[in-house]
Each structure stands twice: as structure tokens, then as C-alpha cells.
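Batch manifest, entry 17 of 40.
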Amino acid sequence: MQPSINTLLKYLRLEASRGYDDKAVFGGMVKMLDFWVPDARNEKIPEETIQAVTNCMNTYHNFDSDERSRAVKDLWRQIAPDSISEIEKIVPSRRTTDLENRKHDETTTNHEKVSKTNQQKRQPLSNSQPGGVTSKTPIALNASLTVLNGVGPSNAQKLAKLGLHTLGDILYFFPRRYDDYSQLKPIHKLWYGDEVTVVGTVQNINSRKVRSGKMNIVEVIIEDGTGGLRLSWFNQPWMENRLQKGATISVSGKVEQYLGRLVMSNPDWEPVEVENLNTNRIVPVYSLTAQLNQKNLRNIVRQVVTYWAPKLIDHLPETILRRADLVNLRTAILQVHFPDTQEQLQQARQRLVFDEIFFLQMGVYRQKRNWQKATAVIYDVADDWLNFWLASLPFNLTDAQNRAIKDIRTDLKSGVPMNRLLQGDVGSGKTVVAAVATAIINKAGAQAAIMAPTSILAEQHYRNFSIMGTTHEENGNCLKPDQIRLLVSDLPEKEKQEIRDGLASGYIKVLIGTHALLEDPITFNNLQLAVIDEQHRFGVEQRAILRAKGNNPHLLVMTATPIPRSLALTVYGDLDISLMDELPPGRQEINTHVLFARERERAYSLIRSQVENGHQVFIVYPLVEESEKSELKAATEEYERLQTDVFPKFKLGLLHGRLKPEEKDAVMMQFRNGDHQILVATTVVEVGVDIPNATVMLIEAANHFGLAQLHQLRGRVGRGDEQSYCLLIPDSDDAAENERLAAMTKTNDGFILAETDLKLRGPGDFLGTRQAGYANLRMANITDVHLIEKARTLAQELFETDAELNLPENQLLAEALGRFWGNGKGDIS
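Output type: C-alpha cells
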């Protein structure tokens, strides 16, 4: 079994043993794709397998534990059917299961306070619309797939695993790639590596057993007058009876070489008198599930598309189609499934991509309009007061910080709830800007809540806010130390109750914490500002729960993940954005180097010298424990080796995602306090931890990390005045040429790296846990700024003239938009 498959099964075992809590991989099972997919492709794992894993992991976090269990077992059955009993025998520990049940109960209780929003599944096609208008969308598209020839209950169950339940689902089940067999070649002009279609006459058919009878090979020779070609089918003995001497067939596949002769292995084939659905054309390739092959799935899709696509009525008004230079929906659906030419395929894709981006824009405009219709308390402060507050800080603000503060002041005195994204690279000083917003709110006697994704980051904010919020007695804005409080889950119940009482009475003005802020007993007297740090770590409903604890409070969300302009335009169009693209003065660039594995001792020498000079070091690994066959370095094993053999004179700490929250916090406290000189860790250190004394970040198996993650890790050092270093060691010499690693050495600018990452890996990493609508992106490549801006312009113009889409020409668009967004009314951002 190949190493990447072993790695996958290891994670599935671990996930099962944890009770399917989506924590076998830090950040959720989806994060496994960052390193697993490149490895799988390098090992030539079949694309169908890679897509099955990708589809499962991308949707895994949406499921409850029972659905996750089924998904994991279905995936295992597809990958390693002979050992399925292994995963079925795993019983999660009671502690893990009980913890999962408690979390589920708490989440359910919280979510009952907020309207269910952002349904991710595409809504059924409907024949009625608001106001009693009859839709022109055929109601028959809601019919079950069992109405099709060849689709019984068994096949319907297989299709359901792909999210295909109705005829309408089939229309929008787009191919994941295409094989272009449209250019026929004579046999004598074939070359090794060609992917082509040839037509020939069957000259000879032979079947034989190999490997002691364990494998059957059917070999066929075809000729076309210019030459002969050998075709081989493995373990498909029925092929001997399906082909006949003298029959003329069309075959499509990849030309390979065996014993100096050109061959095709397991090619697609059809008699030439049958319409060449699978050959002699651009052939669609779809995502598959177990016991469902491409040929059968194409036939199912063809039945639906050729009959129903011509009956579709376009939901886009004619004026938009003309101005955007788009083909109509009928043509787009037909050509995206079974394109006649590459040009027509491109036009079809352009149309369908436009639809998705246009729907996104209409959704974010609707959200922004709803937000702006609300009213909020006005907060304004005099310039003298703010200048005095800023003058007390031990540093000067950057121009970017001053611009962000100006934006926030404008929002707070507008009478409309602030809805702003503060986007700044690691170390750009977002916390100070948030503290200014909090101080303005507090000056008027109102309350603010700051929510962070981890206890250590919440505690860090608590220290900073305590220093900045309690030092201004002269202007009457001084908060007492006990008016700024920290709430995390492991606080003693007595202290939690004291905080609850202080919030309800209005005495506590600033509450900083983790998800504990969302708990039911937490009631604010007058919550007027919600600040959410590392916003992509929180779901939409969690943010809505926090906001619901106030009456239209102002909202400031922060992220240290640089977001490319094209993605910000598309995904965060409902938010006002303040961009902090400037680091504080004196901050030095981090020297970044890629080292070969054999150069590891150079890295160790640098670490020794830095520690001897009083500095601290991070060493990061991609796994917690090393599997038997995985070559990836693992934190626990390497910690022992480093402490014993490499750095016996230094004190090392170990931090990984399997530790309990209080254990993680204890390790980080020890490291921050200098008790540990070197911290061996997994990516749990990625977010927000501030250790000014740390000057070296060594990342092992660096080629298994994405650019965004590498940049976040690098940002853990270089936060003091000393020169800092980031050392990237891939797990093979070949990987040292990795494009991501090369990009890291060329720039410290997170925005340049973000653009590169978007081109390399698509928008998934940047979307985080944003929900409704974004789960429905099937075609959009959000790197096409020109198309995005075209869609934004047209969406904005339409929104300004008919925001509710009530005009007759916009009725079908309103219906399609409702399906795309699931008719959700809640937050997008």
C-alpha cells in the first residue's frame, strides 16, 4: 500500500477513536488535504480516489458525529475494502464521546437563540415564487433519479453519495476535468504519451491468465490500414465476448509502451455505429463513488442534460447577458457537460462562473443593505481625548493604524452598526486598533466583548487590553482592573459567576474570552461592541450568537490572513475593509532559507547560537505521532530525539493538538516565561501567540504546508527587536524546489504570498468557515479579477434599481438566487 494511503488510513483510525470530533488533524480534517493531496498526486494515486477524499474532507465539518462515522467508513470502504472491519471495530472512548455529546448539546442550545441561517444545500427547484408568480423552471426537475433508464434504487443510493438526488441536481453536477479525444490520429502517427482516439478493425482477440492465475488479461489487436495497436484489459474477462473479429471500434486512452511496442491499457471503446459519447470528442470526467464508473455516469448525465437543458428558461435578464457577453443558460449547461469544441467549453464555463460570482455579489449586497437598515448607538470622541489616549502608548502608530482608527471612528458615529473587517499581516498592530474602538465605547459607559479562538490568545489580549485600558486617569477614562475580565472555560465556577454578575450589572466593561463568551448564562447589560479575532476560526452562527447578546452592537472582525484583492472583493463584499499593510517601525524582515535535509546540522548550529545568546526557538512538525510507514517527521518522536541527542543542554517543551486546553496553556506559559528555550510543536502555534524573545522558526517537512500556513508560522518570530530567522526543511531534496517554499524566501509580504497561494491552491484556504453560498461554488475560479469586477458592477446596478428583484424580468433570477443562498437571511460574513 502506498505511503499516502497509509497516512490517510492512519488519520481515519484516529478520527474514529476520537468519536468523530473532527480533531484528528489540527484545524479539522479538511486541513489534511494541504499535505495529503500533493503527496497522493506525486505517488500517482488515481484521481478518482483523490477527489473522493477531497469531497469527503471538504464537507466533513458540516456533519454530525453519526454522519461523520458513515462518511469515514464509506471512504475507507472505497480506499481499502479488504480491511473495512478494522475501522468498524473501533469504539470511541467514553470520555471522547461524552465530550462530543456535551459540545453538541451546548451548541444546539445556543443556536436556538439565533434563527437557522445559511443552509448550505441547494434548495429544490420550485414552480412557485413570492406573490403567486408561477416559475418557468420545470417542476419535473424535482423528480427522483429513479425515473431514468438504468437507475434503480441501488444506483440511486450510489448517486446520492455524490449529492445527486433529483434531475435538477444532475444539470449542475459539473465535470471535474475533461479528456480531449476530439482529434483522431492514424495509428502510424501515434507517439508514447499521446491521449487520443483511434478507429480500427479488430484483427485478433486473446485471453490469458498471469500471476499464477490471479489476473486475467484480454489482449486485442486493431488495425486501421496504417498500422496495428495492441489493446489490453486487465481483470475484465467479459471483454473477450463483447468484441468480435472484424468489428470496427473507436478506442480512446493514453498510448503507453510495452516491450518496445505501443499499447493502450483499459481504454474506453465503442462500436463506431454508436454515437461516440465516450470517444472521438471532448469527454467529461466526473467525480465518482464506489461501484459507479465514468461510462455509466456519463450515460445518466446525458439522459438528463440532452432532454432538459434545452427546456431551461434563462434566469439572467437579457440586458445582463448582452452586457456581460455571455451565452444563454441552455447552451452553457449543454456545452459544459458535452462540449463540441474547446472554445464552446470555455464560453460555457465563463457563463456558469459568472452566475456564481454574480449570485455571491447579490447576496453580499443584500446582507450589507440589511445591516445598514439597522440603527446603532452613536459614539463620538474629541480629537484631544483620542490624542491623549494614543500619546500614553509606548510607541507611535503606523500610518496604516491611523487610517484604520479613522475608519472606525467614522463607523461609530454614523448611527449604523459598524461591520468592518480589519485585515492586517502578522505583527501589523491590529490589537491596538481594536483597543481604541473599545476605549471609545467604554468612555460612554457601554460594554465590549473580544472573542479569540484559543485560551492563550485570549489571555494575551487580556494582558494587552488591561495595560492599555487602565492607564488614563487624567481624562476620566480609566477602567479599574476588575472591570476588564478574562473568561475561559477552565475558570473556577465561583469566578465565572462573579463575571456573570458583573456583566449583568454593567460593572464589567470589557470581557475577553474564547467560545465561553457564547454560553447561555452570559448576559450583558449594554453590549455595544463585539470584536472577533481570527474571524475565520469562528462559524457564522457563533458570530451571530455573540451579536445577539447586544442590540445591534458594532462589529469589528480581525484576521491576520492576508486576503488577495480579488477574493476580498468577492467574499467580503458585505464588510467594510480596513487594510493594514504596514509593519511597525524597527521591525526587521525575517531571513528565510530553504535547507536540504542533509543541511539540518546548519539549522541546529544556528539554534544553539541563538539560545546561547538568550533567545528562544520554535521547531514545528506536521504530525503528532509518526506512523510506521510515514516518512513525515512527528513532534513527539522528534522531541525525545532533540532533547536527548541534539540539545541535551537546553530545556525543551512539547506542544500539540492532543493536549488538553489547560495543558496547552501551561506549556505556552512556560515557554513565554522562559522556562523552555526550545518549543517543539505542531501547527497549534500558528495563531496569535506573541513571544518577542523567539528568533528562530524551524519548519520540518515544510513542503507539506500551504503558503498561508507557512507565513502564519513564520509570523511567530520576529516580534522583537532582534534579527529573526525562518528555516524551511522539506522532507526530500526534490521538494526543495517546491514553488511555495521558493515564494517564502522571496518576500515577507503576506499579500504577495496570498496572491501566490490563491493561484496555486484556489480559494479554499481563505474562505475558512464562512458558510451559506460559498459551499455552492462549483465553477468559480476567484482569481479572475476582470470577471469579478464585471459581475460586481452589474450586480450593484441591478441591486440599486430592483433590490428585491420584484420586476417581472427579474422573477426567475430571484428564484435562482434563493436556491443558491438557501433563502438564508442571516450573516454572510
